[in-house]
Design goal:
about 350 residues, alpha/beta, DNA polymerase, domain 1, two-stranded parallel ribbon, 12 helices, binds S-adenosyl-L-homocysteine, binds iron/sulfur cluster
Length: about 350
């Protein structure tokens, strides 16, 4: 089998390759358009001659993601996929319906190296990075399977996007390409646990995407306990990188803060966080920690603690929201399904398909 996955290539790279085969640029554009629509093999490209399709088959392959399992929430219609990759690995994606359209949460790695204590993905170890094509395929397969157009993408599924920097940047350029899927950067969010040097690199790209930083603590003592990454990258250094990001891109950063009962949800924590974020162009997103998976016994904060915490932030001038949890009956937090593969839980309608 050829070793080059044409779906991970930029249009200009395909054009250059095609020149060597004496093929005109418009043929490359035709192929790129098919790939952007989710074509899974060259025979689907009906406006190419059979001869050309056969030539392409000898030079390139097209990777895909196969639907292994599809769960639909009985409460809010949130859809969760377990995808099997061509090498037998599994990843997850979640589709959520909002008033403004459909949003997909995609994975960027098989597993994750970062080992956050409350996270199911972190518990399952790391296998490999996803390719740009495998990230694109999650979006396209979800669109084709549900006959919908996805308008927003969040890189908040399995994996740490900035630990797979080059492939993620290539994906971002491909998915936003006007010749391709044309999903604008302003409709894309990227969530990171805070890999500082890569935040500097991303800032220099000046993408207009939304950066979400998973902070989860107002100081090093608490952050070190739950996020091993903080042992190498201090919270003040992280916030310095965030300020640089804002300065370069003029974009508001969203800080994710998982509320864990008795650990990071006190009034003192709220005041300390507020002081750290003062005068920053930012917004805090409070999420009651999801405790349905295996997360070392961390319990979600109650509503009183959430209300108190958000009240302190608001009073001290920090914009804050409490994140709506969707798909709670289908373990919509990424990493849970891959760990539970084969195990039935909760109330959902299940749809198992083998490709
Ligand atoms: N690796 C990236 C993106 C994937 S995790 C990151 O850490 O940001 C996506 C989000 O889910 C992060 O904010 C992460 O902290 C959060 N998360 C992981 N496990 C969780 C849990 N059990 N409850 C609530 N949020 C969780
Ligand atoms: Fe990795 Fe993010 Fe989970 Fe931490 S929270 S282990 S960085 S996926």
């Amino acid at each position: 089998m050829p070793s080059v996955d044409i779906k991970s290539m930029f249009l200009d790279e395909i054009i250059t390759d095609f020149e060597k085969l004496s093929l005109p640029p418009y043929k490359a554009k035709q192929v790129f358009r098919w790939l952007s629509k989710g074509a899974q093999n060259f025979d689907e490209m009906s406006d190419l001659s059979i001869e050309l399709r056969n030539t392409l088959k000898t030079k390139y392959y097209i990777s895909k993601v196969n639907i292994e399992k599809k769960l639909i929430s009985a409460y809010d219609g949130t859809i969760k996929y377990l995808f099997k990759l061509d090498d037998g690995e599994y990843i997850e994606s979640v589709i959520m319906k909002y008033h403004h359209g459909y949003s997909i949460c995609i994975s960027t790695q098989v597993g994750c190296k970062m080992g956050c204590k409350f996270c199911a993905t972190g518990k399952s170890g790391f296998s490999r990075n996803l390719t740009p094509a495998e990230m694109l395929s999650q979006v396209q397969t979800a669109e084709l399977d549900n006959n919908i157009r996805i308008s927003n993408i969040v890189l908040m599924g399995m994996g740490e996007p900035l630990d797979n920097y080059d492939n993620v940047v290539r994906f971002l350029k491909l998915v936003s390409s006007p010749d391709g899927m044309n999903i604008g950067m302003r409709h894309i969010s990227l969530s990171t646990c805070g890999i500082i040097d890569k935040i500097y690199d991303l800032a220099k790209e000046k993408f207009q995407l939304t950066l979400s930083v998973s902070l989860h603590a107002p100081n090093n003592v608490i952050r070190n306990k739950i996020m091993p990454i903080n042992n190498g990258f201090d919270i003040d250094e992280l916030l310095k990188a965030c300020r640089f990001y804002i300065e370069k891109t003029n974009r508001r950063i969203s800080f994710e803060y998982a509320m864990i009962s008795g650990l990071n949800d006190s009034t003192e924590c709220a005041l300390e966080l507020s002081k750290k974020l003062r005068s920053m162009l930012c917004h805090v997103n409070l999420i009651p920690v999801n405790s349905s998976g295996d997360n070392d016994g961390y319990k979600k904060s109650d509503w009183k603690a959430l209300e108190n915490f958000s009240g302190v932030l608001l009073k001290t001038g920090i914009p804050v929201t409490v994140r709506r949890t969707l798909g709670s009956d289908i373990n919509a937090s990424c990493g849970q399904l891959r760990r539970n593969i084969g195990q039935k839980r909760g109330r959902f309608s299940e749809n198992i398909r083998k490709n």
